[in-house]
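Write out the 3D structure for:
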Amino acid sequence: MTLRHKNGTGAQRFKLGYAGGVVTESASGKEGELRPTIEQFWADQGNLQRVYVVRHSAIRRDRLTAFYRETLESLRAWDFASMGAAGQADYVLLRNYCEKQISLLENEAKDQARFVKLIPFAREITDLEEARRRMGPVDPEKSAAALNTLAEKIKELTSAVGDTVKGEKFEGNQVALAVKDLRESLKAWFGFFNGYDPLFTWWCEEPYKAADKALEGYAGTIKEKIVGVKPDDENAIVGNPIGREALMDHLRYEMIPYTPEELIEIGDQEYAWCLDEAKGVAQALGYGDDWRKALEYVKELHVEPGRQPQMIRELALEAIAFLKEHDLLTIPPLAEESWRMDMMSPERQLVNPFFLGGEAIMVSYPTNTMSHEAKRMSMRGNNRYFARATVQHEVIPGHHMQGFMLARHKAYRRGFGTPFWIEGWALYWEMLLWDLGFPRTPEERMGMLFWRMHRCVRIQFSLRFHLGELTPEECIDMLVERVGHERANAEGEVRRSFNGSYPPLYQAAYMLGGLQVRALRGELVDSGRMTNLEFHDAFLRENNIPIEMVRAILVGEKLTADYSTTWRFRG
């Protein structure tokens, strides 16, 4: 199959090799434009990921690893020197992405090898589902026998947990999560044939139920005897500290040329600045140096039930007006028109006690079903001045504005996304708006400082947890003591950080990404090379990529095919 792409250098031809699922160039032009190659890479990757979906499968890992290696090999055929700046940046981005995915798959294999002793039956389940997805025939009688044997094996293991079957707490948590995935795989396998193949159902229905029940019991026993939590406790905070070596890998692929220890020190330095400012605010409010008392006063300045949505709307419009008045950012009329608001459920507030944003801002505020204590904590944690510092982070110029631009400028780069760009941009605006006098009163300054202190401590607690220096309980204490969080809200923050839905660097990315954007603005705006408006518009138009690569494009950094992170954005 041959694809043709026309650009300023004439027609270029790309051949799709289905064996490897990669795109190779047969005739590079002067620009060496990689956009069609990257677009087809995402399409090919999507096909493979939809076919090879069985978690904990060696077949899945091997196939995806081969795909990424073949893509890297195809990149070497390009004439890097003949490419324009955008093409060279895209080359480095695609190479870095593939290397990262290979590393993640290798680490996944190492993790599974580490706790295979606790799930020796995993291969039996993944093989069933893999065979089904290859559309192979099924033998109902043999399948029933295999399920029966599987159930007995798991029951034996369950009875041995805590005696001959042992493991560390975090290892046990990973195993419990893996068993949950395996139950889903077994359920998908059974559900495909059940009811459609009468003989299969006749043989396998009861053995499947026994195997599924055994898996459920095994996961519960692991949680109780190894992890140390109740089997049905979905809100327990355990996490999986990945260690220093893995952190260094993640930092390298995010293009952050610092060690975890250096980043923790940066967090300490930023926190010290916040603390000095908070003491100044406390003095202005009549509390001497006691910033905690000043913070408690601000927490009580919340609106009454039913008024939160109206307040959020007013705060969003206030931020937009400020941006326009100071000519800071081009805001397309449709972007201003199309943001929306939804209320967050009590269940979601257990994990996200504050606002979430994007095209729709998710508003946190207590509902009638919450306990009295939970209502008070939610109202205090989402008071007017904390909210004022959050709304612009979530709507405009923050996440809603980002999403609007991502869909319209270099959208083919979105797969390279990084939390340092997403959260760093929104946090950067908190810094810039502070510098430009957006907070006018002591209460408004305290509201902004609360979040800035929070982002400093996020660096510390998340990295130190993954280094094995802090437990989740100690992380909660740190948020309460150093930031002034309500305890329930601090628990929600730590739960969200370590429940597996966010990558390990996500929490640190807010402040560190913000410092990267601020440093880049210093190079381009403070030097007079760009205006604020030009810089902010140009930043968004490069889409969601590591900020060091945004810098390389905007500053004109000389790139090489083997380029690696070098930018020390903090002195």
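Residues 1-32 have pLDDT under 50 and may be disordered.
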